[in-house]
Amino acid sequence: MSTIKKVAIFGAAGNFGAPITSALTSAGFDVTVISRPSSASAFPTGLSVVRIEYTDVDALVTALAGQDAVVCVVGPGAIGAAKGMVDAAARAGVRRYIINDFGWGINENSLPEFKPLGESRQVAWNCAKEYAQRYEGKENGFTWTGITIGNPIDWALAKFPRMGFNVAERHATIYDAGTEEFTGTTLEGIGQSVVGVLQHPAETANRFVKVRSIQVSQNALLAAFQKATKEEKWVVERSTTQKTLEDGREKHAQGLNGWVLDLLVFQLYAPGEARCIVASREDSDSSLLGVREESVEEVVEKALGRART
Ligand SMILES: NC(=O)c1ccc[n+]([C@@H]2O[C@H](COP(=O)([O-])OP(=O)(O)OC[C@H]3O[C@@H](n4cnc5c(N)ncnc54)[C@H](OP(=O)(O)O)[C@@H]3O)[C@@H](O)[C@H]2O)c1
């Protein structure tokens, strides 16, 4: 497969889209942002921005013509348009489509409550797989990659106190013994993973790649937070993953918000289950893609920095 140079991105100003766009431009890709006419998103100066309704597939085909690759990193509100984006990219002759995963891929460890969410995302993924099969064996035909990052750790620690760390208030909630390990990828790692895929198109074609920046437990995170903020005392309380499971299931049954986070916390920390270890360092694609292993101190510093801003 020939070199990828021109890359279009949907969702470039988003939580993950911004660091991905920054990593792509730093790595020397020629980046075009596709955004909506109604969008209030701001993009780095100097980038080419094309504004189109995401549901206007014919206009998207025109906009994507000449692009080597597309990165789809839109938020959950745009998932309904994701299949049309794949259609447009395939019709435009795009060679690599990075599907909108940046999560857990097809995760057999997920609780059944997540199935409908997963299925809504997989409509576009399945469309990409069908196009790839159709173009199989054709030189420079359509191919796809999914990037499984697991927990977006520095961003999630700063944003979701439900994960057990209220960083602003120096308050921690440790679930069970706090020893269950999970893997996470930082925003830096997420950006690098996209760059790595586009720099290694042959090795990453038509599959999910798995990346990680760290494998860590709550206890190790708490120790690092305490060390980094040594002048301040953390209040530490205890809870159980069984309680978060029950809380989440009750909210889900009653149609209340908050169940997603509750059940995600259960999946992260349920003792002895390793539900959220995406891959070991050796089995992951991190080395291939240039995603570096980060220390717990580094990840915690990033989370503290994000919480301050
Ligand atoms: N692994 C995890 O735990 C985890 C956590 C968070 C997110 N994710 C995944 O990462 C991906 C990106 O998420 P994100 O949080 O970065 O997204 P986001 O910041 O919420 O949104 C990214 C962009 O999507 C477009 N968008 C958002 N809402 C829209 C709507 N209602 N209609 C049309 N367009 C809309 C906007 O782009 P424009 O304004 O330019 O049109 C926005 O800047 C998603 O697949 C998400 O599921 C995974």
From TrEMBL:
Residue span(s) of domain NAD(P)-binding: 11-154
SUPFAM superfamilies, A to Z: NAD(P)-binding Rossmann-fold domains
Record Pfam families: NAD_binding_10
InterPro entries named among the record's database cross-references: NAD(P)-bd_dom (IPR016040), NAD(P)-bd_dom_sf (IPR036291), NmrA/Isoflavone_reductase-like (IPR051609), PCBER-like (IPR045312)
Spans through the membrane: none
CDD domains: PCBER_SDR_a
Entry's Gene Ontology molecular function annotations: oxidoreductase activity
Record's keyword terms, sorted: NADP, Oxidoreductase
Presence of keyword Metal-binding: no
Family named by the database record: Belongs to the NmrA-type oxidoreductase family. Isoflavone reductase subfamily.
Protein name in UniProt: NAD(P)-binding domain-containing protein
Upper classification of the organism: Eukaryota, Fungi, Dikarya, Ascomycota, Pezizomycotina
